[in-house]
């Protein structure tokens, strides 16, 4: 068949090899695929601009649907120039005060024969849906810090009694850069939670405009769509650091999708690595977490030329 879909496991390997810097010739030879097939799926992957991590999380059925519905269409040089401008625009929009209108003014100054504002907005929306088909939110730098606990716990051993104590795995992430902080703490009680939030801000060396926790009791005494009641200790911390608390809305998974995604990644890069190791103090456990966290933050984002730290 002329347009037969290639086996999804091979597509995953094509994308993985490509993200790891392998040449198309190597990929074609190693996977016994034609060079045109390899070029086709790499081109589709570039059009989608998804990370390999997101691609790898999809089922074969979802992946087949994604690639079968995406095509690399021939577009005019004028439109291609516009599309080439959008990745830079996406990065600039994360900066405080930058708007789509500001970016259009930059674009039209360099391309006086380019698209007017209505078409500019239209094509940016189309481009955004193609490169971010999964739930996507635009984050401003320094705007929000998302915090949550992982569902799975870690453990330490009391050196005197040999008792194994479960400890919590706290994660914080900045919206725009995805720069991540993590630590183990003795509990999810408000004192430990507030300490972890403060440690995260010290790690980030700054205070976000807002802190977004899940609706855990350490943060929110009473949930409400309009006026949730914030734990007094957390409210005092927010007042001290001149920030605000914006709890994620109940039944609104998009509000906390970023930190939940970070938890999943850290499960693979930190939790799995240390879960079988014996630790005899919280300090010892956290030192190991922070060593692995440093590697995570300095690792280039899949399919991107930058890391969380550099961003």
Automatic annotation (TrEMBL):
Location of the Integrase catalytic domain: 129-311
Domain of life: Bacteria
InterPro entries according to UniProt: Integrase_cat-core, RNaseH-like_sf, RNaseH_sf
GO BP terms in the entry: DNA integration
MF terms (GO), sorted A to Z: nucleic acid binding
Descriptive protein name: Integrase catalytic domain-containing protein
Source species of the chain: Flavobacterium kingsejongi
């Amino acid at each position: 068949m002329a347009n037969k879909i290639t086996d999804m496991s091979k597509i995953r390997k094509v994308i993985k090899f490509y993200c790891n810097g392998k040449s198309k010739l190597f990929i074609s030879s190693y996977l016994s695929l034609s060079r045109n097939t390899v070029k086709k799926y790499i081109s589709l992957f570039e059009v989608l601009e998804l990370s390999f991590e997101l691609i790898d999380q999809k089922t074969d059925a979802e992946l087949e649907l994604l690639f079968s519905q995406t095509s690399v269409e021939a577009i005019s040089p004028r439109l291609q120039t516009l599309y080439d401008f959008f990745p830079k625009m996406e990065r600039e929009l994360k900066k405080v005060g930058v708007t789509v209108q500001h970016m259009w003014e930059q674009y039209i100054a360099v391309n006086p024969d380019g698209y007017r504002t209505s078409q500019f907005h239209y094509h940016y929306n189309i481009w955004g849906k193609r490169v971010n088909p999964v739930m996507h939110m635009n984050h401003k730098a320094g705007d929000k810090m998302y915090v949550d606990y992982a569902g799975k716990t870690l453990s330490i051993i009391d050196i005197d009694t040999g008792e194994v104590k479960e400890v919590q795995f706290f994660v914080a992430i900045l919206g725009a850069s995805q720069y991540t902080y993590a630590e183990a703490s003795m509990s999810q009680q408000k004192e430990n939670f507030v300490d972890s939030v403060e440690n995260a801000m010290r790690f980030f060396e700054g205070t976000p405009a807002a802190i977004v926790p899940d609706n855990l009791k350490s943060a929110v005494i009473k949930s409400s769509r309009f006026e949730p009641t914030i734990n007094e200790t957390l409210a005092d911390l927010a007042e001290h650091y001149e920030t605000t608390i914006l709890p994620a809305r109940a039944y609104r998974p998009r509000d906390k999708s970023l930190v939940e995604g970070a938890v999943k990644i850290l499960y693979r890069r930190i939790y799995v690595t240390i879960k079988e190791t014996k630790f005899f103090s919280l300090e010892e456990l956290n030192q190991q977490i922070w060593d692995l966290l440093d590697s995570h933050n300095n690792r280039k984002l899949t399919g991107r030329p930058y890391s969380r730290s550099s961003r």
